[in-house]
């Protein structure tokens, strides 16, 4: 699998991991890829063909097989970015389901991420997206 296909596969699998693609997730997927090389140089037809190919693989083999292959096609630096993008995408609708959390754990295992990498990236994204100025924070202080 080519690296550009692998990176997009992980992003798409993150969005599809709970079986529902919300409008927010679809927008976030587009936003995550449209300014990155090589996707920024693809026209809509090429992007549509790439996603059709990946969705077909998810339907036929499940997202686990696709993610395992995709993770193996990326170097460690690319894996860290793909993991951060996946974490961001599952949080894009401000809800994280148990299926999405399981997907992230499976992805971290497929990428053989160490404990610090597995926790630091999601923790930073939680801090980034926390509504810290909300006047009524939750009991844990993470509104």
Overview of the molecule:
With 143 residues, the protein is an all-alpha fold. The chain has a single domain (3-129), classed as TerB-like (Orthogonal Bundle), CATH 1.10.3680. It is 69% helix and 0% strand. It is built from seven helices and no strands. The chain has helices at residues 3-16, 23-34, 44-61, 63-73, 76-90, 98-110, 115-129. Helix 1 runs antiparallel to helix 2, helix 5 (76-90) runs antiparallel to helix 6 and helix 5 packs across helix 7 (115-129). The longest helix is centred in the middle third of the chain and has 18 residues, at 44-61. It is globular, with a radius of gyration of 15 Å.
Give the rounded overall mean pLDDT: 88
What are the low-pLDDT stretches, counting only 5+ consecutive residues below 50? Answer: 139-143
Overall shape: it is: globular
Broad CATH class: Mainly Alpha
Strand residue content: under 5%
Rg, nearest Å: 15 Å
Helix content: 55-70%
* SS-derived structural category: mainly alpha
Tally of separate helices: 7
By CATH, the topology is TerB-like
Main attributes?
143 residues, mainly alpha, disordered C terminus
Secondary structure layout plus pairing:
Layout: H1 3-16, H2 23-34, H3 44-61, H4 63-73, H5 76-90, H6 98-110, H7 115-129
Summarize the structure.
The chain is mainly alpha-helical and 143 residues long. Helices cover 69% and strands 0% of the residues.
